[in-house]
Amino acid sequence: MEGGWSYEQKTLISELIQGANLAKQLRAHLSSASSAETREVLINGIINSFEKALMVLKWSGPVACQPQRVPAPAVGASGIPGSPLSVNGSPCSDDFDRSAAVREQFDCRDTSKKRKMLPKWTDQVRISPDTGLEGPQDDGYSWRKYGQKDILGAKYPRSYYRCTYRNTQNCCATKQVQRSDDDHTVFEITYRGKHTCLQGGPSTPAPPSPEKQELKQVTHGNHQQDQSQDALARFRNGLRVDTENLDGSNITEMPRPFSFRSSSFGFVHGETHSSSGLANNTGNHGGNLSSPFLSPSTPESNYFSLSPCPMTEFGQIHNRYRSESDPAEIISATNSSANSPILDLDFSLEEVGIEPNFPFNTDGFLPKLDY
DNA sequence: GCTATTTGACCGCG
DNA sequence: CGCGGTCAAATAGC
């Protein structure tokens, strides 16, 4: 059924779910000793989600002007602080050029001021000089390089990437890749803006990652890459993924280099700390970050914050990686929300109160549940 | 021929 | 005015 939904509808649903989830997370964070930065990220995410949802409503033609079909979001009435949207505007007025207004809002070639309002976050990805595998792998999205700059005081140039689907889907996500001066095995990846394109994220095959190309530029010869491929193949063999059903009936080999969405906005890339892959999972579920498939987060990073109940925090689950040894165990899940300060990994269905044979929708949407 | 990358030019901001 | 970020023509690769 959801298969018949339009892109706008899916985006709208996704954004609203995401906004609601972020609000819940924010509420949780308000009562805890979390950092102001974390709260800021959540607030930005909420604002971003509702802005997008509102724009989709405006974008979706007559629907937006027919409250009897699509109720106006309550959030609109109170306005969004700092939102560029004119909530009190008259999108349904006769002379309102909706598509033009949407283009204005969504056009990536926007003023730098508006661009500055896009959420921004940074991942640090370490490569291993020994294996070459632990370099920044594919983050699940496809990027196109549009520039490279020598940065004052930096040893290595900075590369600029934008989403491949920038023009076709007006996806404004960009990222910058900068090799660290201090530790050349570390790449600092700054993401800006959230993907609004319909890439499948971590489950969709993507061209070779730009980071790998970065590595290519600074490492001479391809010996490292050969080793990388071997190790990756070993890892794949140990990993199964089920992107459709969780009843164990349709487990397939993981089709592609893996990357788990793990930071507030980015991904954590798998590393073969254990060459036998997920089957060697310790079974140490929930509440810890000891997944052998995660890069260790640095003290200053907020990458791997763990939700007490990750499943409830996900608005939409794309992939559910499961342990080979224990089908009820979810190794990781990725969600559609690029703004959730997530949340990993290593939890079991049981722990989050879901029956092992819980009938997940095939499109990844979680049915509404009261946890 | 199409798509991605490279790279010098350009522009806006501080 | 210098720097970071982006553009766009040229080039490379398939």
Automatic annotation (TrEMBL):
SUPFAM superfamilies: WRKY DNA-binding domain. This is Uncharacterized protein. Coiled coil: none annotated. One of its GO terms (cellular component) is nucleus. GO terms for biological process: leaf senescence; response to hydrogen peroxide; response to ozone; response to salicylic acid. Pfam families: WRKY (PF03106). It comes from Punica granatum (Pomegranate). GO terms for molecular function: DNA-binding transcription factor activity; transcription cis-regulatory region binding. Keywords: DNA-binding, Nucleus, Transcription, Transcription regulation.
